[in-house]
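User: Could you check the structure of this?
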Amino acid sequence: MEAELKLALPSRAALDALLEHLGASDRKGILQSSIFYDTPSETIRGEGCNARLRHALHRDNGTESWVVTVKGPKLKQKEFKADSIAVRPEEEEEVTKSVADAIRAGTMSPLDALPQTELIKSIKAACGQEALRPREMFENTRVPVKHTLQTSKGVCELTLELDETRFEFEGAREAHWECEVELPPERASELAGPVQAALQEMLHSVCKAQCEPAPGKLSRYRKFVKRAKKSSL
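Assistant: Sure, the predicted structure tokens are below.
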């Protein structure tokens, strides 16, 4: 299970101001390249799920990693008392470069790189005989910063993930900036509201703007592609 809170930042300048405020020691960050897989008929999307292969390059030391992630349908948000949070089932596994290469080459399904849990089995059943193919791709640079946040529920030790995400499609380009934080899923209903309120207060002070909840990157990318296609007509 994953519980992730996202708030949009208004600009690159706001991101830089936040990095300065937090005293980020390494601003080179992690270059993440994400490829999302689905069937030609978009079965996985239709199930409210997504399947991703992510490559991460740590710019400070050159180390690399490959992670396969499948996320299930989002749970209803009312109990979490924060409109910036998404809570959903998740299966995630770090894989070797050879496995990642096989997935990219189309000789291995990303679903086969994960433990065969009920979530994975249900997605496989929905896909049937249709093979998964790469459908969407984008990059982001992530700077993780540890931060102690004072909330109405007390002090929370968090890792803030500060992202610049770059979308490209047929010559169109767009950049997005955001602050993400993962909460313990078992405490999401208790902490989501207080953490969002305290984080928004801090961001408003530093960025001089109201930082609203941000949708997931994949949904924003899909909207970007839709706009790009419309503008090219």
